[in-house]
Amino acid sequence: MRRSGFLRKVEMPLTKFQQSKCLEFVDKLIAWPICSPFIEPVDPQRDGAPDYLQIISKPMALTQVRQKLISNEYDSLEDWRADLDLIWENAKTYNGEDTLITHMAMEAKLWLSRKMERFPDNQEHEWITKIQRTSKKLDDILSHPPSELDPTGRFSSNHEQSAEEEKTEKE
């Protein structure tokens, strides 16, 4: 959809499937020790950050994102992702570029970005992706059997290539 020469991104409503996947990701982040500073909202007194609310205008934490998911407060994946990105950006803004907390936040952001590259649209897409990954792993295993099972290397893909090369050389 074009408006004033700019392409406007259309946000799709968050489906129940997407909501459950988002909740799964947030729960993994909460369980990951590297995310421990981002689980609960920053308490300026408890956390030794008396000026936090003067510097950070929109605080956000993983438990808040989780609660918003459960309460159906997200209209789209983009809204959910924006809140998570807000957590990482708040950490960087308050703590500075080259600090342990910022590095932890950037690691969590990177993990989430990688997960979002393969975020399934629906359960069918998720299953197809899982089947494709499993098929690839199985193919790799069958192409490279353990040496105990194939001591001569006869069944490995390297052996097949060698046999084809020998055949080509003979011709």
Topology summary:
Blueprint: E1 2-3, E2 6-7, H1 16-31, H2 52-55, H3 62-70, H4 77-95, H5 100-117, H6 123-143, H7 157-170
Antiparallel strand pairs: 1-2
Helix pairs in contact: 1-3, 4-5
Characterize the structure shown.
This protein is an all-alpha fold. The chain has helices at residues 16-31, 52-55, 62-70, 77-95, 100-117, 123-143, 157-170, and strands at residues 2-3, 6-7. Strands 1-2 form a two-stranded antiparallel sheet. Helix 1 packs antiparallel against helix 3 (62-70) and helix 4 packs antiparallel against helix 5 (100-117). It is elongated. The termini are far apart.
Task: Summarize the entry for a quick read.
The chain is mostly helical. Helices cover 59% and strands 2% of the residues.
How would you describe this structure in keywords?
171 residues; mainly alpha; two-stranded antiparallel ribbon; 7 helices; 2 strands; disordered N terminus
Number of helices: 7
The end-to-end distance, rounded to whole angstroms, is 60 Å
The biggest sheet amounts to:
2 strands, antiparallel
The tally of beta strands, per DSSP, is: 2
Q: Compute the CA-based radius of gyration.
A: 24 Å
Helix content: 55-70%
Model regions low in confidence, pLDDT < 50 over at least 5 residues: 1-9
Strand order of the largest sheet: 1-2
Q: What percentage of the residues does DSSP assign to strands (E)?
A: under 5%
Shape annotation: elongated
For this entry, what is the oligomeric state of its chains?
A: single chain
Structural class: mainly alpha
Secondary-structure element series: EEHHHHHHH
The residue-averaged pLDDT reads: 83
